[in-house]
Amino acid sequence: MTGLKILTVSKSLALSKLIHDLIAGVQVLSASTTQEAQKYLRQQVFDLCIIQLPLPDEFGIRLARQCALRYPLGVLLLCKKEIYDQTVYQVKEDGIFVIGLPCNKEMIYQAVQCLEAGCLKMKKAEQEVQKLKKRLQDERIIYQAKLILMAKNHWSEETAHHYIEQTAMHAGLKKAVVAKKIVDEDGSVE
Question: Cβ-count burial of 2 within 10 angstroms (0-12 exposed, 13-18 middle, 19+ buried)?
Answer without folding.
Answer: exposed
